[in-house]
Design a protein that fits this description.
The complex is a heterodimer.
Chain A lengths: L4 E10 L2 E11 L4 E6 L5 H8 L7 E8 L3 E4 L5 H9 L2 E4 L3 H4 L6 H11 L5 H14 L16 H13 L5 E5 L7 H18 L2 E6 L2 H7 L2 E6 L2 E7 H6 L4 H8 L5
Parallel strand pairs in A: 3-8, 3-9, 6-7, 7-8
Antiparallel strand pairs in A: 1-2, 1-4, 4-5, 9-10
Chain B lengths: L16 H16 L5 E2 L13 H10 L5 E6 L6 H13 L3 E2 L8 E5 L12 E5 L13 H9 L4 H14 L10 E3 L3 E3 L17 E6 L4 E5 L5 E3 L26 E5 L6 E5 L2 H9 L13
Parallel strand pairs in B: 2-3, 2-4, 4-5, 5-8
Antiparallel strand pairs in B: 1-9, 6-7, 6-10, 8-9, 11-12
Helix pairs in contact in B: 1-2
Classes of the chains: A alpha/beta, B alpha/beta.
């Protein structure tokens, strides 16, 4: 089986400081990988390098494209990379406002990706938008409301609908549950888990919330100071942490 | 149709020769890449931004002593903007001016394309306030330029989608986006969408945005397609009336409030077209009886 994403020795420096260093891993189709670590450990830098938002200094990010097989996304042309960003990739931002167009309706937000890949039939675009709003539990009568009128949890669900409407194969998530209260978080996680399993998505989830990765991720990567300190199956890493920092992380979770 | 003496204190058509040369270069580039916005070093003009500084610079760069100039504002030859720009070129270039569309070799316009069909040998110069059609959806200039370069025009449809979602139809009535020669999406300046089909003509069409420092162009006989959805096709629209002065049922109309009791009349926005029809004996609902 060809890995969907192969990352080799990815390094990003901010001047003399290290963003993330020598990160390598494979991600297989249908697999969900969690990246955990404290603030400033380089998780978001890594995610942005993978998604093409930042240009890494060294390394390769090889994606198994539908047409041409495995291709290094860092050396492919910019139009092709942006096309991947609209079709096979999705990016869920921590702050829904970063990933949504706040000035246009929920329906247009979902429809934008469809229109960006050439949909030109209003009725079809709208039907798909309504369908996707339903899948993320947003009522049909909110389709013409602007995201400003939505609660934080709804905005985050709208962002997810907007990203998944073109049927991507790889989803990057940057703290998808950050800033939401726990009951809303639980529903969002439930929804995400359902969608990931149903659509057979591969995902890379960056978070500092161990509960999120326990629920969603098959595999876990622990980062500290820009380097990967431990990798393994989620349950294995969380139940039997080997590295000192991972042990600290696991023991820091409050038990209620 | 009066030839004035050119005021010798000014260089011909106000601008210095180097500036006109710079603008002509930009114009040639714009004509070579239809719909592409060419940056140019817009000059300070003796009028405020928003009054047509871009159009005036393009007109100045195109004028020759043998040209005959017409200036219209919202279709009318006799409004402030049109009169002052016409006077400006009468004084600084001494060219002949006219109000008749067919007789003009250069026409500077704001917000309208004349009703009379334009042909080869004519230049239509538009005054453009905001040249970037993506601006209100994508505020970053770097990003909108990249979207033009990579032909990523999905966002333009988001605007049309919003129109239909909120109003049941594409309610954009002016500055209706068009795709030029199958490549660049262009804002045809704030002309009513009624005029969009007239963008395909034998005349050279030049667009100048002074404040935004952009020039773009449509060469003669270039394909210009108004954007739309398959199930909501583009429709040029106008007020559903006949002109009350000349009775024309196919021209673009202005609505004029005539009293404070709900009285109103509809008149052709193109004054030259309306006057020509009245001279031919056409009459509308409110035409003076003695004239008939």
């Amino acid at each position: 089986m060809t890995p969907l994403l192969q990352v080799r020795d990815l390094t990003k420096r901010y001047g003399a400081r290290l963003g993330c260093g020598d990160v390598s891993f494979d991600l297989y189709p249908g697999e969900v990988m969690g990246i955990v670590g404290e603030s400033g450990s380089g998780k978001s830098t890594l995610l942005n390098c993978l998604a093409g938002h930042l240009a890494p200094d060294e390394g390769q990010v090889i994606f198994d494209t539908r047409g041409d097989g495995p291709v290094d996304t860092l050396t492919m042309s910019e139009p092709a990379r942006r096309m991947l960003g609209r079709t096979d990739w999705a990016f869920v931002h921590q702050n829904a406002r970063d990933g949504l167009r706040m000035g246009v309706s929920a329906g247009a937000n979902v429809g934008e990706r469809l229109m960006a890949v050439g949909a030109r039939h209003y009725g079809d675009i709208r039907a798909q938008a309504v369908d996707w709003l339903g899948r993320v539990e947003i009522a049909e009568d909110r389709v013409d409301d602007r995201p400003r009128a939505f609660s934080g949890g709804m905005q985050q669900r709208l962002q997810i609908a907007r990203n998944l409407v073109t049927g991507p194969r790889l989803v990057f998530m940057d703290e998808p549950t950050g800033g939401l209260d726990v009951s809303v978080q639980a529903r969002l996680l439930d929804l995400l888990r359902g969608l990931v399993r149903e659509m057979g998505l591969s995902a890379i989830i960056v978070t500092h919330d161990l509960a999120v990765v326990r629920l969603l991720a098959d595999r876990l990567m622990v980062m500290k100071s820009g380097a990967v300190v431990e990798t393994g199956l989620t349950d294995q890493v969380l139940d039997d942490p080997q590295h000192g920092y991972t042990q600290l992380l696991v023991s820091s979770v409050l038990q209620v | 149709m009066t030839a004035m003496q050119h005021d010798p204190a000014y260089n011909f058509a106000y601008l210095d020769e180097q500036t006109k040369r710079m603008i002509r270069r930009a114009l040639l580039k714009a004509l070579a890449i239809p719909g592409y916005q060419v940056p140019f070093a817009s000059r300070e003009m003796p009028m405020p931004y928003g009054w047509g500084t871009g159009g005036v610079q393009v007109t100045a760069a195109c004028l020759t002593p043998g040209d005959r100039l017409k200036v219209i504002d919202q279709g009318a030859d006799d409004t402030t903007n049109a009169v002052s720009i016409r006077k400006f070129f009468e004084r600084t270039a001494g060219v002949e001016t006219t109000e008749h569309t067919a007789e003009a070799s250069v026409i500077q316009t704001r917000h309208r394309i004349p009703e009379a069909p334009l042909g080869e040998g004519q230049i239509l110069v538009y005054q453009v306030p905001i040249p970037e059609p993506l601006r209100f959806l994508e505020p970053r200039e770097t990003e909108s330029r990249k979207m033009h370069a990579l032909e990523e025009y999905g966002l333009m449809y988001v605007k049309l989608y919003e129109d239909i979602a909120h109003n049941g139809a594409i309610s954009t009535a002016y500055a209706y986006p068009v795709k030029v020669e199958g490549r660049y999406v262009m804002d045809p300046s704030p002309i009513p969408k009624f005029d969009n089909p007239k963008l395909e003509s034998g005349a050279i069409q030049l667009f100048g945005a002074g404040r935004e420092q952009r020039i773009y162009a449509i060469p003669p006989y270039t394909q210009v397609v108004s954007l739309d959805f398959e199930d909501h096709p583009f429709e040029p629209s106008k007020a559903d009336h006949d002109c009350d002065l000349c009775g024309c049922g196919t021209s673009y109309l202005d609505e004029v409030i005539t009293d404070d009791a709900g009285g109103r009349m509809f008149v052709c926005s193109d004054t030259d077209f309306c006057a020509a029809r009245q001279a031919e004996g056409h009459r509308g609902r409110l035409s003076a009886e003695d004239a008939a």
